[in-house]
């Protein structure tokens, strides 16, 4: 059976940032700190924490299969040409990493690699807050478009992106 991925894109210039800044403000008011990996420090310890968080959050992706080993993940994420620690937004509750939104650079567009929030923190707008800050990174890079794709059964991620203004991508 072939899966037809849902491919989405967002025009960075058309993004209604003020509408979504309320999610950022609400997270901060609730004690959730939002910081990039560059701000926290792109250290081996933080890379391992990102891997652990990504692995946990990815378990909910339909038909995801086994997650990469840390070595495979490090090669795909940190050694990739589009990697920039400024494009990795982390949500923290105290010192606990509770969410991540990773965006990579690809010329005139950025790609939202993964957005995930630990199960106990979902439903609080953390994912939208992280993606909103990720769009600031897209602007810094001069990207015109943000692209992403989802398994068609990942309805909550698709709905969140559509709420933010993502539309079906023209292949």
TrEMBL record:
Pfam families per UniProt: Acetyltransf_1
Residues in N-acetyltransferase domain copies: 32-171
PROSITE patterns: GNAT
InterPro entries tied to this protein: Acyl_CoA_acyltransferase (IPR016181), GNAT_dom (IPR000182)
Name of the protein described by the UniProt record: GNAT family N-acetyltransferase
Organism in which the protein naturally occurs: Streptomyces tricolor
């Amino acid at each position: 059976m072939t899966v037809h991925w849902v491919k989405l894109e967002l025009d960075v210039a058309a993004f209604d940032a003020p509408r979504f800044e309320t999610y950022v403000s609400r997270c901060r008011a609730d004690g959730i700190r939002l910081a990039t990996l560059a701000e926290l420090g792109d250290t081996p310890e933080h890379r391992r924490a990102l891997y652990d968080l990504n692995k946990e959050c990815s378990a909910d992706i339909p038909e995801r299969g086994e997650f990469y080993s840390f070595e495979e993940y490090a090669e795909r994420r940190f050694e990739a040409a589009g990697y920039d620690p400024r494009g990795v937004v982390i949500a923290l509750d105290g010192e606990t990493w509770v969410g991540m939104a990773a965006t990579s650079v690809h010329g005139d567009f950025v790609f939202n690699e993964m957005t995930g929030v630990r199960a106990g923190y979902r439903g609080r707008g953390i994912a939208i807050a992280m993606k909103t800050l990720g769009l600031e990174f897209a602007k810094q890079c001069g990207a015109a478009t943000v692209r992403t794709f989802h398994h068609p059964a990942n309805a909550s991620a698709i709905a969140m992106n559509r709420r933010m203004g993502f539309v079906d991508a023209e292949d």
